[in-house]
Amino acid sequence: MRASLIQIAVDEGESVNSRRTRVSSLVRDVASRERADLVVLPELWTTGAFAYESFASEAEPLEGPTYEAMAKAASDAGVWLHAGSIPERDPEGPLYNTSLVFSPDGQLAAAYRKIHRFGFDQGEAVMMAAGSELATVRTPDTTLGLATCYDLRFPELFRGLVDAGAEMFVVSAGWPARRREHWLLFAKARAVEDQVYVLACGTGGSHAGVPQAGHSVVVDPWGEVLAEAGDGEEVLTVELDPAKVAATREQFPALKDRLLGLAAPRR
Which class is 2-254 in CATH? Predict the structure, then answer.
């Protein structure tokens, strides 16, 4: 199985419509050139993850222009496409940070509303509603578990994805450069503790004056970094062996030793 992560650089001088057209072409080109089975895009690449003032004005319905463009790109390329996330406007009013995954025939395979919103009572944390459901996608090769950026700090979400059958975590992000080491640490930790592949796709450039970490990374179930990007726009393509997940769990069966439902400490 071949996966390509497209680390988009968000240029604030590029319109959302222009970027949408450019990224659609990138998906087609990368899928063809790299012979990818799965293509992954970063979080909120249409607006920039820190461009809070644009969320409301650029929010779109689930089946809006980004949905249509990405569905067509997936279908044209014949590839599984994690299309990153969009600022979604629900018909009832709330905004969500919503990831979209399309099958090779351009059908929506999953929509994941980000559960953990970043901002500590400002920014995304107050402008967007929280999702409440985990999301997985079954492909012919493996089961993907979906997460977005700040989710990476919450291991219980990933345990839930493992319990739902996930063997590969796809993390779409717009992670700031000043916490780059956290990004790399968490990506490796989630891979090791859950014995899965982690495909973590971030952005380059700067969002509303916030330099982005870049350094999209692919980690195997033993915690080995298979590929890591630099700071700018870049494509990572990696050959993955889905059978390695089961083999790792058999060789080192730590997940079997999980103890759940422990009693609270006595006081």
Answer: alpha beta
